[in-house]
Amino acid sequence: MVTVIISGCNGTMGRILSRFIANNREMEVIAGIDRYVDRYENPFPVYKNACDCMESSDVVIDFSHHSTLDAILKYCVDTKTPLVTATTGLSDKDSESLMDASKIIPIFQTGNMSLGVNVITDLAKKAAQVLGDPFDIEIIEKHHNQKVDSPSGTAYLIANGINEGLENKKDFVYGRYGRAEKRKTTDIGIHAIRGGTIVGEHTVIFAGPDEIIEIKHTAISKDIFALGAIEASKFLLKQTNGFYNMNDMLK
Questions:
Q1: CATH number, domain at 162?
Q2: pLDDT by residue (tens digit) across 145-173?
Q3: CATH number for position 243
C-alpha cells in the first residue's frame, strides 16, 4: 500500500485526487495539508501548515499554491519524502529551491500532469526544428475565469520545450498590445484567455508562407491531471534522488 499526503487537499484538484485514490486499492491518503482546513470534511487529518503534519508517507503530491512551496519542500526534505508537484506560477527562485531539494530527495515536477499535453509539447518541439525560421510560432492558452496565474504553466512548458529544440534562440512575447514594431522571427507569442469554466485548452500555431499548422490539446475534465499525478507517484517511488519530469516518465 502506497501512502500519500496531499498538499492542497481541499482545492479542486486535491478533491479530485482524493476521490481517485479512495478508489485505488494500492494507494491511501493518510493526511492532507491546506490553508482552508475546515472547508470540507475529510476521512483523514488536515493540517494548515506542512510543519504541523505529524504523519509520514511514501510520497507527497502537491496541487497547492506556489506560496506554500518552501514549507512543503522543508517537510519533504526533513522527512526524506519524495515529492510530486504540479503547482504552477513558480518563480525562478522556486525552481532553484526544487533543484536544490532534488539533491536530497526524488522530485517530480511538471507544469501539467496530462500525458497528452506532454505529447503535444514533444510534437511542437519537433515541428519547430523541422519548420525553422520561415514559420512564426504563437501559443494560445484558454482557462476558466478562476485561474490566477497567467500565462499558464502549461503554456510555459510548451514554449520552453520549443525553445529548447531551437537552442533557446527565441524570445517570449506576451499579448502584443501597443507594439509599434513588426513581429520578429525570434518571437514566440504567448496569449492567455480567461473565461467561463474552460478546463484547459492549448494551441500551438506555426504560421508560414502560405500554410498554417496547428497542434492542439483540449482537457475535457480535470480527472486527467489526477491520473497523471498517480502515475507520476508510482514512477517516482522507483527513482533515486534527483529531479524528474514527464519526459523521464514517458521514456
A1: 3.30.360.10
A2: 999 889 998 999 999 999 999 999 999 99
A3: 3.40.50.720
